[in-house]
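Re: the 220-residue chain
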Amino acid sequence: MNKAQLVEAIADKMGGRQQAADAVDAVLDAIVRAVVAGDRVSVTGFGSFEKVDRPARYARNPQTGERVRVKKTSVPRFRAGQGFKDLVSGSKKLPKGDIAVKKAPKGSLSGGAAATVKKAAAKKATTKKAAAKKAPAKKAPAKKTTTAAAKKAAAKKAPAKKATTAAAKKAAAKKAATAKKTTAKKATAKKAPAKKATAKKAPAKKSTARKTAAKKATSR
């Protein structure tokens, strides 16, 4: 059966050939686009379509027998559902006047356990996302505490700076006082010889007085 025959087979159920052709095109287009995007298309009781990645490998040319390297590629794959398999194997009869794969039997590939596995995976993903969102909220107080500790450390360091500046001022005042004392001592030390010189000159005055007295005596 080709596409045209498939359209003819469902034309009566779809209300016309054009409607059937549009429905087939829409279904096939949706499947192809989803598989190309990497999604898995699962039809309950019928089967699933998915994209499979094949790694790089070596193969042999069937005509020459030469070994050829095949690059990494992606291929589409279809897996029949359990209901489809049961109908083909004959273990289950086709229903008359009803859809063949309307309900998925227990243990079907695309339904039942697979659906529960998908739901469990979705729940795990949501819980992981919620935990990831809550984690930053819990870590926020830690940042606040670190900032508070940094502020306290800075406050403690500030008085140390003040103390060092006060000590520097005291040291400078002591140096200035000692410098003044040394300069005063030097000045006094330089002035002392001048007084001694004046003391030595005093006898010169006495000699002049004696000379004047001697002159007066001779004049008499």
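The longest strand covers residues 47-54.
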